[in-house]
Specification:
Strand content: 15-25%
Strand order of the largest sheet: 6-2-1-7-8-10-9
Structural class: alpha/beta
Number of helices: 11
CATH superfamily of the largest domain: Vaccinia Virus protein VP39
Bound molecules: S-adenosylmethionine
């Protein structure tokens, strides 16, 4: 149908808007993606065509811009994704922080619907129980994302059976969840108490989040250009305490982008440690 077609001019204008607004690079020939993601918005906002909707986005309609960014982000996530960062926390990293007089601060940057931040929280609670560790100065896990819809889900902390089935070990399900309506499960307050969620566009300043001991920035840099990755990695390094730790997604690397970190190979997996300045 003609109203669902995206012509070359509108595709180029929309691609430029998206990259400037949130860093996401569409590249060539992703008209099908723009068509499928923006068709529901064209209907919701009564635009006569996708091209007309794109016109209103690029001309600065804030509501349409926010909805377009929301629609174009990919929010795929699961519990304990890639497994090894959580194993490393438990086997070697958390013990470095458990007895000190300063709170442990961990950032899940681009947290999607919260599974990453809550997997970190459950790992720490489990570690505390098994090791009788105190973390007496406190634990502060911050999740941030550009998507308000995802942040709402994070704060709600209720997950349906499909989401629960993706990566959550049975013991964690028993220990840290309780029944909610419609067959859903919700996280117990002891897990929620360790986490808070905030809106943050990774292209903006990180001054509002403070300094961290460990940062998870996983499966989001893949959407950005090398120039934007370099800027983000620079800001992440500035947000880490000396010797702080960065986890990237299993298929992501900082090679050729920054000299601010030393790669630490583990078995399995790897992380990046901030170099002393
Ligand atoms: C694929 S999910 C990754 C979630 C989680 N980190 C993981 O690895 O499972 C990518 C997330 O990045 C967010 N995102 C995309 N662009 C962003 C930006 N410029 N600033 C902050 N978050 C962004 C999306 O909203 C989405 O929730």
């Amino acid at each position: 149908m003609k109203e669902k077609e995206v012509d070359q001019h509108h595709y180029a204008a929309f691609s430029y808007f998206l990259e400037q607004a949130c860093g996401i690079v569409l590249g060539e020939n992703k008209q099908y993606l723009v068509r499928s993601r923006l068709t529901p918005l064209m209907k919701r906002f009564n635009s006569a065509s996708i091209n007309e909707f794109v016109d209103s986005v690029v001309k600065g309609n804030r509501q349409h811009q926010a909805a377009a960014i929301e629609a174009m982000t990919t929010n795929e996530t699961l519990w304990f994704r890639d497994d090894y960062p959580f194993k490393l926390l438990k086997s070697s990293l958390l013990s470095q922080f458990s007895d000190r007089n300063k709170s442990l601060r961990i950032w899940s940057a681009a947290c999607s619907s919260g599974q990453e931040a809550y997997s970190i929280a459950m790992t720490i609670l489990n570690f505390k129980k098994q090791q009788s560790s105190s973390f007496r100065a406190g634990i502060d896990i911050v999740g941030t994302d550009i998507s308000e819809e995802m942040l709402q889900r994070c704060r709600h902390a209720e997950y349906d059976q499909l989401a629960i089935s993706r990566g959550l070990p049975a013991q964690f399900r028993t220990d840290f969840f309780e029944p909610a309506d419609d067959g859903k499960l919700k996280l117990k307050s002891e897990v929620k108490a360790l986490t808070k969620f905030k809106s943050l566009n990774l292209l903006d300043s990180y001054a509002s989040v403070g300094k961290f001991d460990i940062i998870f920035c996983r499966n989001v840099l893949i959407y950005f250009s090398p120039e934007v990755k370099i800027q983000i990695l620079q800001k992440i390094a500035a947000c880490l305490q000396d010797d702080g730790i960065l986890f990237l997604g299993a298929s992501e690397s900082i090679s050729g982008l920054t000299e601010a970190f030393t790669m630490v190979r583990c078995s399995p997996g790897l992380y990046y440690r901030k170099k002393p300045q």
